């Protein structure tokens, strides 16, 4: 991967290493997402897929390697035995150009749904309130929560909370959307409504990275699939090949086990 | 006199007050706990007593302990019928006034703690005792109170520590316990920091021993917890 | 009974004005001590949550000591210790005699430092109660430290700390009676003075009970309103 590829990408990581204590979770991962790509990241639990995703907005700081967002490399430095960003303002600016959707929604409980959605546009991106509210209402309409905009998060079902969280991520007008197992914390009967919203976003041509255990869904919406094993990319390619005819034996076993379920 | 000599001398003088501090704490915690249990049981069991106990707790927890001490020590003497009663023999002595005020005060806080313990007793345990044919009294004595007190013990331990600290207020009605002696030494010498260090150490040691004791009691009353930890 | 009404009433014969003024003084010194306590509590909680080992040790020592020794002793330390320091300074400058320092300041500091030890635990517990995901979500949208403190951490911390802080306030209100030993004419002191000079101590102490109950009940009601306001939307409907 060369520098021109990074410059043209929406999101890119190069030679990413991350460890927690003695456990090396990422062992040199390279990944470039071009604008408009929908990349699904699959793999067993503990394979490092969530950590990989969390390194992109620097929720985890990698010990080695680089992260670039919209072609801009995040500047990191070794300081007092820990690697950390040189410039917190740069990190915050780049974070604000992404949309991150958590497994456990993480809506701010002291704000209504609408307040959650307009919070960052108004206070981080400093957009005019009226504009932010109008856009937020349109987004809530889109995820099917127009009638819930003045409701507190605690009064919503898990599926509704996750759709509100997706609206919150969309309100950033993000260069790329990152989904960290968006349906894993949901009751089975609520998974469908969230997948439906994500599928709609994929069809709009948005750049997305999705860590998921929903294989059928991943096969259907993504333009590229990455199979992660033991902190490294074991196999990647179009979902048609990964899910039907993978080269790696491990990938084949994993896909089979999960598709049949 | 060197600094060390002064500290040693101060410590010697303060230690004289320790028995009084301990006596005040032990007697008022014991009397207060008996009253606290009685109040909590009354509040849970009697519809007539419930508002009275609630009013008692409200007044005692809503006002400063110092005011309660003054009310008993100075206030009650306003009435000739109090002064002519048998109780006056006790009520004019600062020791008994301090014990009375401290006991009544800790009983109010303690009854709320015991009430919490009573509420935590699983209804199944009570039902099982009823099925076994226990009378209401036996049920309380053998089943309900033992469970409730185990539950209440950690919070009651904190209340006891607060009581050890509260005994210092007895010095204001002339009792020469540790804080009273400390005050006397400070007003003689104006060496507040040294005296504070000595007196503070005494209280810290007392409370350290007390918390250790409560911890040991907790482990003894709940042997199952000790095993679960291994 | 009629005479006690006149005694506690307003006007030339009555103690009403003084008692009212003293009640306001109790309120003022309690508010000041409570705010000082929040200040110490924030410092203590920050130290206990920080990664630095020395800060932990300092904060642990602070809370253990202040929660283990009588408040009265702390008040004496500040009153006599502070006055001693001021007197020494005055003697160095050539003045003579004993100089007392402002009892209001002493009371505020002493009660505030003790209360701060308890508030340290309240604030630390409240911070740890904030779901980490909500803080992570704030970081993920690009909030800086100060913005996050103002918009997310602060309000969430207040929500979880409010019940505990309410108890602390009630405690400070009652502890403030101890400041009377420094000669500050707050409610406890005023009631004691009235009791001594009128020959009707019971009436005055009863008035004291009533006024303290008014203070604790009124602020208790106010705190419940604040808690209800902060709790809106936090529970499932």
Give an account of the 3D structure.
- The complex is a heterotrimer of chains A (about 260), B (about 230) and C (about 240).
- Chain A has helices at about 5-10, 50-55, 90-95, 115-125, 130-140, 160-170, 190-205, 215-220, 240-245, 250-260, and strands at about 10-20, 25-35, 40, 65-70, 70-75, 75-80, 80-85, 100, 175-180, 210, 225-230, 230-235.
- With about 260 residues, chain A is an alpha/beta fold.
- Chain A has a six-stranded mixed beta sheet with strand order 8-9-10-3-11-12, with helices on both faces. A four-stranded antiparallel beta sheet of chain A has the order 2-1-4-5. A two-stranded antiparallel sheet of chain A has the order 6-7.
- In chain A, strand 1 and strand 2 (about 25-35) form a beta hairpin.
- By secondary structure, chain B is mainly α.
- In chain B, about 80% of the residues lie in helices and about 0% in strands.
- Chain B has helices spanning about 5-15, 20-45, 50-60, 65-75, 80-85, 90, 95-120, 125-130, 135-165, 180-190, 190-220, 225-230.
- Chain C has a domain at about 185-230.
- Chain C has helices spanning about 1-10, 15-50, 55-70, 70-90, 105-130, 130-140, 145-175, 185-200, 200-230.
- In chain C, about 45% of the residues are buried.
- The interface between B and C is large, with 40 and 43 residues.
Q: How many helix segments of chain C?
A: 9
CATH topology of chain B: MetI-like fold
What is the tally of beta strands of chain B? 0
> What fraction strand of chain B?
under 5%
End-to-end C-alpha gap of chain C: 53 Å
Order of helices and strands of chain C: HHHHHHHHH
Q: What is the rounded Rg of chain C?
A: 22 Å
Major interchain interface with per-chain residue totals: B-C, 40 and 43 residues
């Amino acid at each position: 991967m060369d520098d021109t590829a990074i410059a043209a990408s929406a999101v890119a990581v190069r030679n990413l290493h991350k460890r927690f204590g003695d456990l090396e979770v990422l062992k040199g991962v390279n990944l470039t997402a071009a604008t408009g790509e929908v990349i699904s990241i699959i793999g067993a639990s503990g394979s490092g897929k969530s950590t990989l995703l969390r390194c992109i907005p620097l929720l985890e700081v990698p010990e080695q390697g680089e992260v670039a967002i919209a072609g801009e490399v995040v500047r990191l430095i070794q300081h007092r035995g820990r690697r950390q960003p040189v410039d917190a303002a740069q990190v915050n600016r780049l974070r604000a150009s992404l949309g991150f959707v958590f497994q456990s929604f993480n809506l701010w409980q002291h704000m209504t749904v609408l307040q959650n959605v307009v919070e960052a546009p108004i206070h981080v991106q400093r957009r005019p309130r009226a504009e932010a509210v109008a856009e937020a209402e349109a987004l809530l309409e889109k995820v099917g929560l127009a009638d819930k905009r003045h409701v507190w998060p605690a009064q919503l079902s898990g599926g509704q909370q996750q759709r509100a969280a997706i609206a919150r991520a969309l309100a950033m007008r993000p260069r790329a959307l990152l989904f960290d197992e968006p349906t894993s914390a949901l009751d089975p009967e609520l998974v469908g409504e969230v997948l439906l919203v994500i599928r709609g976003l994929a069809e709009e041509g948005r750049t997305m990275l999705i860590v998921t255990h929903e294989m059928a869904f991943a096969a259907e919406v993504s333009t590229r699939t990455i199979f992660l094993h033991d902190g490294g990319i074991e196999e990647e390619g179009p979902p048609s090949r990964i899910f039907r005819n993978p080269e790696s034996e491990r990938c084949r076993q994993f896909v089979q086990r999960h598709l049949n379920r | 006199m060197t600094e060390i000599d002064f500290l040693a001398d101060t410590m010697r003088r303060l230690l004289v007050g320790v028995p009084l501090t301990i006596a005040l704490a032990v007697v008022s915690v014991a009397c207060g706990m008996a009253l606290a249990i009685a109040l909590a049981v009354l509040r849970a069991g009697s519809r007539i007593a419930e508002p009275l106990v609630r009013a008692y707790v409200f007044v005692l927890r809503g006002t400063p302990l110092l005011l309660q001490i003054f009310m008993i020590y100075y206030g009650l003497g306003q009435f000739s019928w109090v002064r002519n009663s048998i109780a006056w023999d006790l009520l004019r002595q600062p020791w008994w006034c301090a014990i009375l005020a401290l006991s009544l005060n800790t009983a109010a806080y303690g009854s709320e703690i015991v009430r919490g313990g009573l509420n935590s007793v699983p209804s199944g345990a009570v039902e099982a005792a009823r099925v076994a044919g226990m009378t209401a009294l036996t049920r309380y004595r053998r089943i309900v109170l033992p469970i409730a007190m185990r539950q209440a013990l950690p919070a009651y331990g904190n209340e006891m520590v607060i009581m050890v600290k509260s005994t210092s207020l007895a010095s204001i009605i002339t009792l020469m316990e540790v804080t009273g002696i400390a005050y006397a030494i400070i007003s003689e010498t104006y060496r507040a920091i040294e005296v504070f260090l000595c007196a503070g150490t005494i209280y810290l040691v007392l409370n350290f021993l007390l918390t250790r004791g409560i911890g040991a009691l907790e482990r003894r009353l709940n042997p199952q917890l000790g095993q679960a930890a291994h | 009974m009629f005479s006690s009404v006149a005694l506690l009433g307003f006007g030339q014969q009555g103690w009403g004005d003084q008692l009212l003024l003293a009640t306001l003084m109790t309120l003022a010194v309690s508010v000041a001590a409570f705010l000082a306590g929040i200040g110490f509590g924030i410092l203590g909680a920050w130290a206990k949550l920080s990664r630095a080992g020395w800060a932990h040790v300092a904060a642990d020592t602070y809370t253990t000591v202040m929660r283990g020794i009588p408040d009265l002793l702390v008040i004496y330390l500040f009153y006599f210790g502070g006055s001693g320091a001021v007197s020494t300074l005055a003697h160095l400058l050539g003045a003579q005699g004993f100089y007392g320092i402002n009892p209001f300041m002493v009371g505020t500091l002493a009660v505030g430092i003790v209360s701060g030890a308890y508030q340290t635990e309240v604030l630390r517990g409240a911070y740890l109660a904030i779901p980490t995901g909500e803080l992570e979500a704030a970081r993920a949208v690009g909030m800086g430290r100060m913005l996050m403190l103002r918009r997310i951490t602060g309000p969430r911390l207040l929500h979880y700390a409010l019940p505990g802080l309410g108890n602390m306030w009630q405690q400070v209100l009652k502890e403030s009676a101890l400041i009377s030993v420094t000669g500050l004419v707050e409610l406890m002191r005023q009631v004691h003075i009235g009791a001594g000079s009128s020959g009707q101590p019971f009436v005055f102490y009863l008035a004291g009970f009533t006024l303290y109950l008014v203070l604790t009940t009124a602020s208790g009601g106010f705190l419940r309103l604040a808690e209800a306001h902060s709790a809106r939307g936090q529970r499932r409907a």
